[in-house]
Amino acid sequence: MSEEFEVKGPHEEILEGGEEGRGFNNRLAVMTAIMATIGALFSYEASVTLGEAIIFKNEASIRKTEASNQWNYFQAKSSKQNLAELAAKLTTGKDRDGSKSDAARYSSEKVELKKKAEEIEKLAYEANERSEQYMHSHHRWATGTTALQIAISLAAIALLTRLKWLQYASLVCATVGVVFGGIAWFGF
User: Fold this and answer.
1) Which one, of 56, 63, 48, lies nearest residue 127 by Cα?
2) Over the stretch 70-113, which tens digit does the pLDDT of each residue have?
3) Cα–Cα–Cα angle for 129, 130, 132, nearest 5°?
4) Residue spans per domain, the chain
5) What CA–CA distance (Å, rounded) separates 84 from 29?
C-alpha cells in the first residue's frame, strides 16, 4: 500500500493560509467589500453632482445669451432715441413734435428693457453660482472615490504580500475617502 503525501509549495500555503491567514484574509475581504460599496455610492454622487453642475452652467449660458439680446435691444432703442432727438432738433412744427414723442417713447421703453436685462443677468449669475457649488461638491465626491479606490488597491497588495502596514495604509486611505465623502455630504 502506498501512502500518498501531498507536498505544498509556498504559494499554496499562502493562498490557503493557516488559521491566522484566514482571519487576515477575511478581514481584508470584508474591508475591501465595504470600501467598494462606499466607493460606488460616492462615484454615483459624483456623477449626479457633475450632471447638476453642467445643467446649471448650461442654464447660466442660456440666461447670459438672453440678457445679451435684451441689452442689444436696449442699444437699438437708444440709437432710435438719439436719432429721434436729433430729428427733433433739426425739424420744426409737426415733425418736431412727432420726433419728441418718439424720443420719449424710446426712453420709456429703454427703462423696461434695462430692468428686464438686469433681471435676466441676475438669473444667469445665480445659475452660475449653483453650478460652481455643484462642481465643488463633485470634486469632494470624486476625491473620496479616488481615495477609496487607492485603499482597495492597497488592500489587494496587502492580501498578496501579507504586509500588515499596507493593511493600515489601506485603512488610512479609506478613512480619508470617507472624510471627503462626509464633507461633500454636509456641503462643505
Assistant:
1) 56
2) 999 999 999 999 999 999 888 888 888 898 899 999 999 999 99
3) 65
4) 32-185
5) 82
